[in-house]
Queue: 2 jobs
Job 1
Amino acid sequence: MAGSRSLRQGFKGHASRLTAPRQAILEFLSKSSKHMSAKEIYSSLHRSYPGMGLSTIYRTLDLLARMGIVTKLSLGDGQSRYELRSKKEEEHHHHLICTNCGKIINYSEFLDEELGLVKKTEDKLAKKYNFVIQDHNIEFLGICEKCRGK
Amino acid sequence: MAGSRSLRQGFKGHASRLTAPRQAILEFLSKSSKHMSAKEIYSSLHRSYPGMGLSTIYRTLDLLARMGIVTKLSLGDGQSRYELRSKKEEEHHHHLICTNCGKIINYSEFLDEELGLVKKTEDKLAKKYNFVIQDHNIEFLGICEKCRGK
DNA sequence: GTTCATGCAAAAGATTTGCACACAG
DNA sequence: CTGTGTGCAAATCTTTTGCATGAAC
């Protein structure tokens, strides 16, 4: 798995053991197709791993995010969502969000031209503002067919 | 002010009076340059308007957002931020965010080409997914100069 | 007098933190 | 042993809701 090597090398001098809960969370993220909230991870893992506490999920996600293994997303519904960065790179996508029902569509079919421009913009921004740019987030907001029908 | 006419016409059949607290919030948003959190609005308004409660702020912001007068942003720091849509249109910008210290830079200097592509993508997404697209959000994430120095 | 808006307090969620114990090296 | 990771409970923080009062129409 992508994360295990990095996990074993640890994070910024802090120890980082690849424990059972952490493995479970990583494995779960690598299997799940969508971006998952802490609660969703918790509920799903609870079946096969009854003892696990919510705080462990949060602490692990935070660790993984700081290690760069996981990406934390804020999509506007009041809770953070997480996805494996490797997965994001493989199946890079942007978001189309219904502001009425909260439905999220990951689209990846019009990315080619988008990504070209993104790269260009990244370079300009990096130069002008002295940033090291690591990621981007593009979302379109609107009303989905279903909600419009009502 | 942009909002007053719309406010007086009401919202989807619901009554919507242009009351003093609502005026104060609108005025504050029209003066403020950045996207403000509910708490920030509350603190600032509290000086000139001691009685105002936080819930009024939230209720008003929600109302204004549903009316389309205000845009609600989720920038990943655990609280929502709001800005006048009219202002957004006048001074449309995208975001550059430091994932370490949370600093947010609004940039608007490379938007021309971005917006062209955005329009094209909007059309394609609208057609393919049957969405009515109302808005978009583009952000770049990275590490700012200051944080990198440490 | 009915409806709408507000403040306050309580409630609800999401996330973080303190602490004592378990466990690995 | 020593330090790291964990679960649980409590604490925080943001946002929402219930309710009684007051204002607008």
Job 2
Amino acid sequence: MRLGRPMSQRRGHNRRVSIETLENVENPLEAGLTILGSTLTVDDISLRIVEVEAYGGEKDGPWPDPAAHSYRGRTPRNSVMFGRAGRLYVYRSYGMHFCMNISYGPDGVAGGVLLRAAEIEAGHDVVSARRSPDRPSHQWARGPGNLGASVAITLADNGTDVFNPASRIRLELGESKEWVSGPRVGVSTAAEVPWRLWIPDSRAVSAYRRSPRAPVIS
DNA sequence: TTCATGATAAGG
DNA sequence: CTTATCATGAAC
């Protein structure tokens, strides 16, 4: 038998949002919903974010999350997530990929939303030159490492205020959209928490792959 | 389906 | 020093 959709999935339709929403979110899920469907602009490239993963924060914070980089406290790498909402947290994954997160919550409280996949809306020529031009464009920014490569993000971009109109990297919120949620990808702890969010029907959404280290559910 | 890649930080 | 990690593309 093949179920159409895992029991852990939910779906819904969110409302219009703003930067104030991101600062005052009630929980990580709300932060993820705020950012899903937004438009990321990097120089002449424009992307529609179609998949995100919400991460909580410190053990002792309001949203303890063992899968979050910030869970064990502030380090030089994760410090941006402890600051104000709307800052870009860039980290190097497995020593080679650059992944992007947007911080949320009040200053001093850690929280971040990982940008996992996007559709290219403008700048196809620039992205094509960086990615595999032979592959379809919906695969160029599918997956967090591919997304970072598409816009050539580096650690120098860490801490960027994405709501400052003068920034090279900006995020535009406010789009209303449908969404679906399910378990996060690649995490070995808290793997059942349904904080991966995506827009149904987008071809750019990455395939779900459970971490081989995550415990098997009974 | 498995492997090489190789930064960061926690734990021994 | 050793191990685990919010991954990917190429090799098998």
